[in-house]
Design a protein that fits this description.
The chain has 228 residues and is mainly alpha-helical. The chain contains 6 helices and 2 strands, in the order ααααββαα. The chain has a two-stranded antiparallel sheet. Strand 1 and strand 2 form a beta hairpin. The relative contact order is 0.16.
């Protein structure tokens, strides 16, 4: 009876092991991204998907030599933004009826490249699927819409000040919404030199770099109050 009890115990443990292993294996096969459910009140945008959208260009970015005569800096990067985190303004002339998505903007900003007319490399958009560009991006100069005010830009900290500890990967100091494609700003000849990544071939950026919880908590999620 004692031997039978020991054998029964081992059989039960073996069955339990198989069940746990099968559950873990099936869970690992599930989709890793968070899906958007239409009836969910607190929609969460899957922030990882955009990281992989330009992964086919990663090795190209690593092999492109640095053009030191046309490098952008963080000062250039923030020059045409009303404040850190704001959509960049359009620093060149645009034709209103043509400056939308594939019709105009994405011809340069989808994959970047050097533009002789502006003597600069074109920044790559992190969200080429949003083709109504003028909904967020406005021309830099205007003579009729805005009035003079006392608004002052907030000073932007330089790169290298957001590591959790010396030698650790820097945290992401901004929200990921509309910035899901890390390589758009951190790789290639149009990337500001202070934040240009040294390893664009490591496509899964979120494996080492995590969002700053403080920044996310400070910004909160946008909610619209609809009055009945």
């Amino acid at each position: 009876m004692k031997r039978l009890g020991i054998i029964s115990l081992f059989v039960i443990l073996f069955i339990a092991f198989i069940a746990v292993w099968n559950y873990s294996y099936q869970t690992g096969l599930e989709e890793a991204y968070i899906s958007l459910e239409p009836n969910n009140e607190s929609l969460v945008i899957p922030s990882e998907t955009g990281v992989f959208q330009r992964s086919q260009y990663a090795l190209d970015y690593a092999n492109i030599p640095i053009d030191r005569n046309h490098q952008r800096t963080l000062d250039n990067y923030y020059k045409n933004r009303a404040f850190p985190g704001a959509p960049p303004s359009i620093p060149h002339d645009v034709i209103d009826e043509l400056s939308m998505g594939d019709n105009s903007c994405l011809k340069c900003h989808s994959n970047g490249g050097f533009v002789e007319k502006f003597n600069a490399y074109t920044p790559v958009t992190p969200h080429p699927e949003l083709v109504n560009c003028r909904q967020c991006h406005v021309p830099e100069q205007t003579n009729s819409v805005f009035k003079q005010n006392s608004f002052e830009k907030k000073r932007v900290l330089g790169a290298g000040n957001n590591n959790a500890m010396p030698g650790s990967p820097p945290v992401i100091p901004h929200q990921l919404q509309l910035r899901e494609n890390c390589l758009a700003c951190h790789a290639g000849p149009s990337a500001p030199r202070e934040i240009r990544v040294s390893h664009p071939e490591r496509v899964n950026c979120r494996q080492c770099h995590v969002p700053s919880e403080v920044k996310i908590e400070d910004i909160k999620s946008f909610t619209r109050n609809i009055k009945e």
